[in-house]
């Protein structure tokens, strides 16, 4: 039971990698990348979790209460928003690739040759 | 390789939305409300919008190519 | 190399990688058995030292504010990349197909959807501003509130008025907001350097933890980041919407 989150994260990571490698559609590749990133979030948050601890917001709990690790939450928090923008960049590249090559299949994309 | 490779991607987009919501619940259980808030906002507003727009643009271009380049 | 070769190579590589991954993850301390010192120090003294009750935001904008500067500029850079990649190429032109762009016919929005969309816009803006400004007290902060704020003008588009969305959030304004937010955050860091002598050290008065004007520069930093994130997302949305609705290939 204590290994479950990490096992799920490892499985998601490998499943996402398989999705990236075996997809015939650039947009599906990008979505698989999102899954790989979420596996890393699970690992980070899993490391910081402490049993019977509360969220690190001390607005209404006493200051001496046990809390989970706030540092990993900071890393994951900014990463989620940045992942969305980087996905936007990748989607923009996919749209322009489709414009130029006429297909979203990665094996149809050749080097720029004109 | 036409629309048949787009249909699974529409389904994948819906699954991604559900995935984002379940990930939010997991973050909430991990006692990380900030992270859960960020994840729910990004995966309901940020990502599906851009994926939707990209898919629409690609579909538009495929229609244009099919209608203007049938002799290629 | 063709697809089967690629998949076979991947199979071999992922078997080795998977083994190392599981082995490494098994070496971590048990789930729930957290003993990190840095986190415990922060939760112990964070409230008394920084006068902020939300320690995650305190870490984000004050204690580890320098990292957030880097991450914010990653965001800025990738949105810059989106704008560059989706620029109008030679041979394309923007013809607003007036009827379609104004009436949002391609999603078949019904009247109920439009009414709901219009009602939701002020709620989104209010909630967004609330979450940005209360970042140091309750869960929230610049990043989350910024994305919610970006959803405001987008809801105007969902309510069926694409050209109205461009009126509310014109390109120049959102790009200006994006740049101003990024520059504002860097200037806050410089303010720490100028007034206290350390880059990104908190230089505004701390106040009482739990009140709105507390924790020094965290409010300003949160607002700057909120402005930047909402500007960045609106720029990305506008670029994609322009591509999907306006730009038509002139050469065919």
List the helices and strands and how they pair.
The complex is a heterotrimer of chains A (114), B (72) and C (252).
Chain A: H1 4-22, H2 26-48, H3 70-101
Chain B: H1 7-29, H2 33-68
Helix pairs in contact in B: 1-2
Chain C: H1 3-26, H2 37-50, H3 55-63, H4 65-85, E1 92-94, H5 98-103, H6 111-133, H7 142-158, H8 162-168, H9 171-195, H10 218-246, E2 247-249
Account of the 3D structure:
The complex is a heterotrimer of chains A (114), B (72) and C (252). Chain A has one domain (4-108): Helix Hairpins (Orthogonal Bundle), CATH 1.10.287. With 114 residues, chain A is mostly helical. Chain A is 65% helix and 0% strand. Chain A has helices at 4-22, 26-48, 70-101. Chain A has three helices and no strands. Chain B has one domain. Chain B has helices spanning 7-29, 33-68. Chain B is rod-shaped. Helices cover 69% and strands 2% of the residues of chain C. In chain C, helix 4 (65-85) packs parallel to helix 10 (218-246) and helix 9 packs antiparallel against helix 10. Chain A binds chain B through residues 24-25, 27-28, 31, 34-35, 38, 41-42, 45-46, 49, 53-55, 57, 67-68, 73, 76-77, 80-81, 83-84, 87-88, 91-92, 94-95, 98-99, 102-105, and chain B through 1, 5-6, 8-9, 12-13, 16, 19, 23, 26-27, 30-35, 38-39, 42, 46-47, 50-51, 54-55, 57-58, 61, 65.
Features:
heterotrimer; A: 114 residues; mainly alpha; Helix Hairpins; 0% strand; B: mainly alpha; rod-shaped
Summarize the model shown.
Chain A has 114 residues and is mainly α. In chain A, 65% of the residues lie in helices and 0% in strands.
CATH class of chain A: Mainly Alpha
- Mean pLDDT value of chain B: 79
H/E topology pattern of chain B: HH
Series of secondary-structure elements of chain A, N-terminal to C-terminal: HHH
Number of helical stretches of at least 4 residues of chain A? 3
Q: How many helical elements of chain B?
A: 2
Mean pLDDT of chain A: 85
Question: Helical residue percent of chain A?
Answer: 55-70%
